[in-house]
Design goal:
The structure is a single chain. α9 packs antiparallel against α10. It is built from ten helices and nine strands. Helices cover about 40% and strands about 20% of the residues. The protein has two domains: about 170 residues, HUPs (Rossmann fold), CATH 3.40.50.620; about 100 residues, Pantoate-beta-alanine ligase, C-terminal domain (Pantoate--beta-alanine Ligase, Chain: A,domain 2), CATH 3.30.1300.10. Strands 1-4-3-2-5-6 form a six-stranded parallel sheet, with helices on both faces. It has a three-stranded antiparallel sheet with strand order 7-8-9. The chain is globular and about 55 Å long. By secondary structure, it is α/β, with parallel strands linked by helices. Bound molecules: pantoate. The site of pantoate (PAF) has 10 residues, from β2 and α7.
Length: about 280
């Protein structure tokens, strides 16, 4: 496994693989890797000739300075895990390498980016699009792998690829959960033992809501999730929205869409977590 830090070095290395006719895939990450990332990398390794994993905590997608400061950075451990799962190249640039000057590009993915995370974290998806497009220009991957936990991000990246007409196939991969159901997230490591216990309510409630949905209307199911979260000490709900999985717009009735997903964001203590559940596809 090669670890490179500059775009020039990365491009030169990937050119040699390309000349050998190898399919090149990218798994973009912000590091602090866990089994969820490992599953993306393993799938990429199985499906492509070369897997590049980028490890870069992208400052432009953080709308909260403290969140950026506290984001876990564990490059050595990340490289050990990536070696184990068979990644070929780790691209771990410094901030100046990706942003030698301010990135003034402004993207619009409306209406996908005006709801949920887009509404709660102004500028977040613009920053995601800035870095993911730069990574796509640097790597020129045939495929790129993203987790479905960041459901809205995945939809926006597909839209960005469509808008920029980039020749990359976007592969969405299922959420990986801890044995007790908590969706894997780099932020989980920031939870205290007590918060980690409380955070279990999120996935448990989402799964219970699947049962609830079988005999109740959408409004009642939404209220069920909201009530459980709001009545759990230490959890502070930001939103729970039941949306059309393609447009990400809220729907009023189960029959309004063939693809129905519930998306949640909340604070567990000071840590912001997201998760989602598919009601219908
Ligand atoms: O999902 C993430 O970890 C980040 O948003 C991404 C796609 C690596 C861009 O920084």
């Amino acid at each position: 496994m090669r670890v490179v830090t500059t775009i020039a070095e990365l491009k030169a290395l990937l050119d040699t693989y390309r000349k050998e006719g190898k399919m090149i895939a990218l798994v973009p990450t912000m590091g602090a890797l866990h089994a969820g990332h490992a599953s993306l990398v393993k799938r990429s390794v199985a499906e492509n000739g070369v897997t590049v994993v980028s490890v870069f905590v992208n400052p432009t997608q953080f709308n909260d300075k403290n969140d950026l400061k506290n984001y876990p950075r564990t490059l050595d451990a990340d490289c050990r895990l990536l070696e184990e799962v068979g990644a070929d190249v780790v691209f771990a640039p410094a901030v100046d390498e990706m942003y030698p000057e301010e990135d003034t590009r402004s993207f619009s993915f409306a209406p996908l980016d005006t709801v949920m995370e887009g509404a709660c974290r102004p500028g977040h998806f613009n920053g995601v699009a800035q870095i993911v497009s730069k990574l796509f220009y640097a790597v020129e991957p045939d495929r790129a792998y993203f987790g479905e936990k960041d459901f809205q991000q995945l939809a926006i990246i597909r839209e960005m690829v469509r808008q920029l007409a980039l020749p990359v196939e976007i592969v969405g991969c299922p959420i990986v959960r801890e044995n007790d159901g908590l969706a894997m997230s780099s932020r989980n490591t920031l939870l205290s033992a007590e918060e980690r216990e409380r955070a279990l309510t999120i996935s448990r409630t989402l799964f219970e809501s699947l049962e609830h949905a079988k005999s109740n209307d959408l409004a009642s199911t939404k209220a069920f999730v909201e009530n459980v979260i709001n009545s759990t000490e230490g959890l502070c709900l930001e939103y729970y929205q039941i949306v059309d999985g393609n447009t990400l717009q809220e729907i009023a009735e189960w029959g309004d869409s063939e693809y129905v997903v519930g998306c949640i964001a909340l604070f567990c203590g000071k840590i912001r977590l997201i998760d989602n559940i598919v009601y219908k596809k």
